[in-house]
Amino acid sequence: MDKRVAVTGLGVVSCLGNDVASFWAGLKNGTCGIDYITEFPTDGFKVKIAGKVRNFHPEDYGMSTPFIRKQAMFTIYGMASAWQAMRDSGLVSGENIAPEELGTIVGSGVGGFDMIIPEVLKFGENPTGEWVSPLFIPGMIADMASGQIAIKFNAQNSCLNIQTACATSSHSLGEAYRSIRHGYATAMIAGGTEFGAVPMGLAGFANCRALTLAPDPKHACLPFNKDRGGFVMADGSAVLILEEWEHAVKRGAHIYAEMVGYGSTCDAYHATAPRPDGSSQARCIKIALEQAGFNPEVDNVYINAHGTGTYYNDIAETKAIKLAMGEDAARKAHISSTKSMHAHMFGGTGAAEAVATVLALQEGIVPPTINLDNPDPECDLDYTPNEAVKADLSFGISNSFGFGGHNACIAFRRAER
After folding, report:
1. Catalytic residue among 15, 32, 159, 166
2. Is 166 known to be catalytic?
């Protein structure tokens, strides 16, 4: 018999703030966390803006100085979100959950960008490899965030890294959900993390024409806006604790929401562009809806759209929502792209948007799509322009569509015991 899955802990590091309360307050208030890059010189760069994490101190999240010195930033951000989420959940391995019942899936789209570049430069100067750091491999590999989090919290169940570009952390949550639903684990630390808004990352994404060249950081990320010009890169992470429902109830945990569905498909179309008719994305959404028992006559829906602010994605996603839900249900749904505020954290963004979806259901507030001052006529659904809306929400989904054609949709219901 399939088990129910509760969300019992949340953690976020983002350009809107380095905890859940700051992140959610920023979303509700329509705050834009995108700003000019000051962490490195951008003279001559095509792109000078990003969603950078600021005022972040790893020591505040239970990390020691020796640990910090050895890790890439994506691991440090992931650890900070996991530390928040585990404290929030109240789970302690060996006390109220057995170590072998607690697992970890925290993915990264890239891994240790900040470790790769300097070591490659060292190798270029000395091709014998003698100057390459012994910390290079265990620091930069993309599975290390998940591994280090498992070590920290003594999580001895499955420990995986999923790497599906922009869909990374939504797939991480979906696979964690399946692990609990089918009885392979009792709880999972799941999400994603990224430190990609670095010079090489910006150059690569800009040169493949994915990033906006807008000069004003507060009016740069424009999902579903006719004036959009591409997405804005960001750093950050988010982690959710998923837990078998009865286990959570028995120990008196706070349950934010119930995770009830997960769809995963592939466009099998193009390396970077989505399937234009939205059909494979729609199938992904429909799988999650059917698994969740979605009822368009009863459910009041919030959709956290992938909504990157790229022309082809915005239009394909609009088509996909209509195909998956039906025209009438799609037009009744409350939809927004929170990337308009926290930008695109790549491997971390799906989990951050899952946090937003869960809190929208809990509080009955739809966060806005800011800067939606010139809506694209082809994106004609209710994308919640500019200001948050109160609504009696009962059901939510979060879409993530990644380079390579990777599609993920995760579904939640408002917690009803």
Report:
1. 166
2. yes
Select which of 344, 379, 406, 409 is catalytic.
Answer: 344
Task: Indicate if 344 belongs to the active site.
Answer: yes
- Specify if 314 maps to a domain: yes
Containing structural domain, residue 292: 261-414
Structure tokens at 319: 């088509």
One domain, residues 276 and 407: yes
Q: What is the pLDDT along the chain (417 residues), one digit of tens a residue?
A: 899 999 999 999 999 999 999 999 999 999 999 999 999 999 999 999 999 999 999 999 999 999 999 999 999 999 999 999 999 999 999 999 999 999 999 999 999 999 999 999 999 999 999 999 999 999 999 999 999 999 999 999 999 999 999 999 999 999 999 999 999 999 999 999 999 999 999 999 999 999 999 999 999 999 999 999 999 999 999 999 999 999 999 999 999 999 999 999 999 999 999 999 999 999 999 999 999 999 999 999 999 999 999 999 999 999 999 999 999 999 999 999 999 999 999 999 999 999 999 999 999 999 999 999 999 999 999 999 999 999 999 999 999 999 999 999 999 999 975
Active-site option among 32, 159, 284, 306: 306
72 occurs within a structural domain: yes
The verdict on 293 and 237 lying in the same domain is no
Is 254 an active-site residue? no
The answer on 383 and 311 residing in a single domain is: yes
